[in-house]
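Can anyone check this?
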Amino acid sequence: MATNSAEGIRWDLSDLFSSRDDPRIEAMLKDCLARAESFANLFRGTINTAAGPTPEHLLHGLNKLEEIEESLSRVANYSSLLYAADSLKPEYQDLEQKVEQRVTEVKNLLLFFELEWLGLGDDVVKHLVGHPTLKSYGHYLENLRRFRPHRLSEPEEKIVNEKDNTGRNAFGRFFSEITSSLSFSLEQEGKVKELTLSELLALLHQPDRQLRKSAWETLFQWLSRHEQLLTFIYDTLIQDHLTMDRLRRYPDPMRERHLSNEIDAAAVSQMMAVTEANYSIAHDYFRLKAKLLKLPRLALYDQYAPVGREFTPFPFAQAQQVILEAFEVFAPAFRAIAAEFFAKCWIDAEIRKGKRGGAFCASPSPRLHPYILCNYTDNLRDVMTVAHELGHGLHGCLSRKQSFLNYDTPLTTAETASVFGEMLVFDYLVERQTDPQVQIALIAGKIEDACATVFRQNVLTCFEQEAFSKRRAGRLTPQAIGDLWVGANAKYYGDAVEMPEGYRWGWSYIPHFIHSRFYCYSYVFGELLV
């Protein structure tokens, strides 16, 4: 059964601020605003000139911009991390909204700098980017130019930033508050227990088939009752994206993501096509697993059922030990960095109502350190999740030599680092196991993780493509969007896995669709590369 050995494992955010009432939050926001006003007075009209700025002047501007942006990131990350840890607390909701508005105010004062850079001619840009003075910012400056055809005027960009706070971003917060507040009643071992979404999903990895089925039905009963609400949120967000894509002259809904990932659209299309053409690999595995479980055919709730002899339970302290030992085998420096996350409370692993589901790693700036959120339910898959997020964390720590404007990374690169963290732990566990049944469990788990990371994430991306395409013709209804979801998944599962009717709502609790459209193909890229 899912337990909570991670109880009490909460992050310590005091390296950012001491509390939501820390006066330094307001002081930093006011300071950022004042510096942004001074920045505008100093640099407005000096970048987009006939001859262009001198390299020294542009460098001075970039340094000043970086200082302001880094301070903003510190405040914004603090409020968002508090909110992720408990999105039901009114004081955290208030702080998140307040910071969002204040950050927008500052960013709108800084907008002109990027727009003036984009207004320069190619010859001037080539000279500046190639100048030794600007060597460390060459990639950043070139990358900005990739978005040149899609930027609006300064007044229009300001309006977009303002409207997103009460539009796209507000719907995202609404979705987070809904899913983090979920509580499910389910009978286990003769007692009715109240479970979070993370705890309920963890039951799909339990050996008891009836328990898995009950967990599955419980989830989809709730989703079906709220299909109108969840569909409305997603439908509204898709239309918002489509409107902005039209205004920004993006040729298709995925182009913005490709530009931020610094990857060619043709490469992504080819990767997705080849991945879909090989769904039969997953079909073969599902049929094999049905035989191992002595079932004529897998039901969807059997997909992650354990085979062989599992590590159950897998307490958080044991996960910490295994991950650190696995990282040390690869490089002692990896262990040293990862050990800080545990020792210095940079991880929030405890399960609790109000906490955001899933897992993520946030890296506020190179002057600070990353933070990891996960919902640890004492199974092997959660060990891999922690390893995955620590891969991100290591990447963030090893990137500290970069300046703030160079600190961010494309998702395709980021997910390569995280999958690498998983692979280190998997290799470590397999190599040290002598029990054949445990080895079978490990290998089966890894195959299922690979299927989920490559094939299923491809399915999610294909579903998004279909949803955006269909929305052009009009509003998405629960029936229409459910049909798209079932159709995309039918290709993946084929006749090897039975999909129950309730699975038509399986799209509706996936946060990537709400917060980061077309994120999921980056997982495919990362897994295949590693």
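Reply from J.R.: I decoded it. The longest strand covers residues 184-188.
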